[in-house]
Amino acid sequence: MADTDLIKRDAVPAVSVAREPTVVVDDVHIVYRVHGAGSGKGSATSAMSRILSRKRGAGVREVHAVKGISFTAYKGEAIGLIGSNGSGKSTMLAAIAGLLPTEKGGIYTNGQPSLLGVNAALMNELTGERNVILGCLAMGMTPAQVKERYQEIVDFSGINDKGDFISLPMRTYSSGMGARLRFSIAAAKTHDVLLIDEALATGDQAFQQRSKRRIDELRGSAGTVFLVSHDNNSIREVCERTIWIEAGELVMDGPTDEVVGRYERGERP
Amino acid sequence: MSTVSEPVSLSAPRGADAGLTPKQLADKYGLSVSGARPGLFAYTKQLWARRHFIWAFATARLVAQYTDAKLGQLWQVVTPLLNCGVFYLVFGVILASKQGFPGHTYISWLCIGVFVFQFTQNAVQSGTRAISDNLGLIRALHFPRASLPIAFTVIQLQQLLISMVVLVVTVLAGGIKPGKTWLLVIPALLLQTLFNTGISLIFARIGSKTSDISQLIPFVMRAWMFLSGVMFSIQDKIQTWPHSIQTIMALNPASVYMDLLRHAFAPIIYNKHQAVHQTLPPHQWTYGIGWAIGMFVIGYVFFWKAEEEYGRG
């Protein structure tokens, strides 16, 4: 089936050519279980009575964060995810990265998606230099590759623009510096699917420009990029497709201009 | 072109794929379930590919441990020395457990016990926190999670090797001459490292699910220490006990590895001195090998079984 499709490629108009999917999200539900919510976990007597009464799941509250979202992402796409705070965007990304179990439905991906978030700190007590090396090794690079890429990563992050900061522990970095370094480490490798959670908004103007170019390069090397952001301008600049999520449900999935436009005007379809 | 107001148009498969359900589409292009656990063999391969990471992580952590301290890396040597000092004061001088040991060998005997037991104790304690303390790393990057407990065991091994330098000085100062049996230290430590890796993997999985366990661990470890005969000869104390309990005590892995190392370093205590009933039964090496391989295999499989769940929720 795929073979005949390849042969016919030139003959059919671009719109009807089968594209290669990289992420298939099929009617996904995600439920968080929060332990010890509600009536006091802190008090010893309540903990004791919980144990004595052998009531499992007492004090566990369920939060239905994603309620039946489906979409398919294709090779070379950059997709923005927008929605108000707590709408389930970051949860959706974590699930695509395989870090959250789905309650129902399935998420199928090409290779291993990599999640890049501002909250995902590396090791704070170690120097930036060590973090670069460890991050690269953890992503599966060989020591030789790390050596080759090291300077490139440091230059890209711009950490050393204002003095020798790379040899200081990461806990001394500002949040922007930390986020820049983390992005630079993650972007040093070509990923089949790269998931970015608000990382672009933290850097300065020059770094944001560099990141956008790098994301374009990553897309060029046949990857798919997901971007979660509250900065509609960076979504407009990076993504041509946008998915609007609200209260765990998919509101709209379409070209960025239209979806973001509607989102800004607050017009739900 | 289709109209842009069609909300699902960008998602729907086109051309030859049109009409496929998401599941069929995923199957056709060979997409896999995100975050699924790889097979045991594939997992081992991935882990082997991360060996440089494990080593670099362990070294970086070891160095970072004392960055805040003024004396810095000197603590690596001072900490084991102080440890020995305290135990010697309490058990050697005040409680006079050294009676019955030839010459000044008690201090060597004690230090070997302390270091060997702490090696396993630290493996359990750091294993318990290996996942929960590194959630940032786990949620940011993809790598086989077993890298972390293994790296922590490597840290303990590196620390032990530093302690070994202190130990060799202590042993020589205690009047024990180096001999051929010192070579046995290497296989004994390798076996214990393998055992520790296994136990660390087990506690890493337990600790990642139940953080309450870290409150309990210190008590369990203390009980284990007293039952293993770190500061006094346990063989001496239990010889009047029922045979079945003696057998169980003899199987205690901490005692097994302590005996192996004590015998390797100071055979004089075992050969010439029967007063404290120190003997090295020939099956001690068999027990050591059995514990090492058994614990490693069980721990590795046990940890791998929950691979996709670490760092979730």
Automatic annotation (TrEMBL), chain A:
Transmembrane segments: none
GO annotation, cellular component aspect: membrane
Record keywords: ATP-binding, Nucleotide-binding, Transport
PROSITE patterns with a match to the protein in the record: ABC_TRANSPORTER_2 (PS50893)
A GO MF term: ABC-type transporter activity
Domain called ABC transporter: residue spans: 49-268
Family, per entry: Belongs to the ABC transporter superfamily.
PANTHER family in alphabetical order: TEICHOIC ACIDS EXPORT ATP-BINDING PROTEIN TAGH (PTHR46743:SF2)
Protein name as annotated: ABC transporter ATP-binding protein
Organism: Kitasatospora aureofaciens
Upper classification of the organism: Bacteria, Bacillati, Actinomycetota, Actinomycetes, Kitasatosporales
Automatic annotation (TrEMBL), chain B:
Membrane-related topology note: Multi-pass membrane protein
Domain (ABC transmembrane type-2) ranges: 71-306
Pfam family, one: ABC2_membrane
TM regions (residue ranges): 74-94, 106-125, 146-176, 182-204, 216-234, 285-304
Assigned keywords, A-Z: Cell inner membrane, Cell membrane, Membrane, Transmembrane, Transmembrane helix, Transport
This protein's name: Transport permease protein
PROSITE patterns: ABC_TM2
An example Gene Ontology molecular-function term: ABC-type transporter activity
Compartment(s) where it occurs, according to its Swiss-Prot or TrEMBL record: Cell inner membrane; Cell membrane
Classification of source organism: Bacteria, Bacillati, Actinomycetota, Actinomycetes, Kitasatosporales
Gene Ontology CC: plasma membrane
Protein's GO biological process: lipopolysaccharide transport
InterPro entries assigned: ABC2_TM, ABC2_TM_bact-type
Keyword Transmembrane: yes
Chief localisation class: membrane
Record-stated family: Belongs to the ABC-2 integral membrane protein family.
Protein's organism: Kitasatospora aureofaciens
